[in-house]
Amino acid sequence: MDAVQLQNLVTLLGAIFVMAGLGGVAWLGLAELRVRAMRRSRLAVGSTAAASPAPRSKGGVVGEQMLTGIRRLGQQSAVRDPAKLSVLRNQLMQAGYFNREAPVIFLGVKAAAMAVATAGVLMILPMLLKGQGGMRGVLLAGGLSAVAMLGPEQVLKKRRQQRELEYSEGFPDLLDLLVASVEAGLSLDAAVTRVTEELERRYPNLTIHLRMLVLELRAGRARKDAWSSLADRLGIDDARALATMLRQAEDMGTSLGETLSVFSADMRAKRMLRAEEKALALSAKLTLPLILFIFPCLLGALMLPAGVRVMHIFAK
Prior knowledge:
It contains 10 helices and no strands. By secondary structure, it is mainly alpha-helical. Among the domains are: 3-42 and 63-132, no CATH class; 166-271. The chain is flat and about 90 Å long. The relative contact order is 0.09. Residues 45-55 have low confidence and may be disordered.
């Protein structure tokens, strides 16, 4: 294989991955807008049964047709690989996508992105074969292919990390409020409802999972199963430890107030240890900026007068 064929192959792969990445990013935005639209429609006041159907715009009809096609592609992908569907659903729930069709839409968008990428490559293939792009086109295609290959997964991973950071920051406050509510005489279920109202402004994403927990408890689901489901949705170790602790306390018949108090104290100690760890690591993290930026400036300020004097002496 000569250099021209290798260049064409790399450019072809780059174009494919670029289109796939753009399709994944478009799906994430479409899914987020769809979830927000569903929430607004549920909160809308008024009877929709008596109202006449509103005329749909041309863009809305096209969007629905595209979504239907994407859903069909996703269903085919889900049938081919059903084992990864539950794992993907958990990942999407941790990222904030609670729709039941979110995994199907995700797989459909990936399949649609590959189809669109193939069509785009076939359209630009004659130009690439003529070598008009040059080495710059190859490098650009390689960089964009890497971004396209890792783009959708990295966006989903970044969203999960942001949510997990909020969950980790809000969990100690959640436990403190639970302890205060339980010691004040409320039951654990009533305490969760009260804490959900208190944490709504500070941790809105965490309160969504707490509302789901309250609904599961009101529906009659077992407490240990509901808390285990909450831990799976949050995806943090503290939530799993709390679910295990509540299950053991319920099986052994120990006091929930004392158990939550001990666990809350342990959480506060862990939070303090994490803060101390970050403070101690600050000096090591500042070493490289000091060497690269501050030390050359300081050295120049100290050596510049001496250098000027030496230049004057040698000039004389």
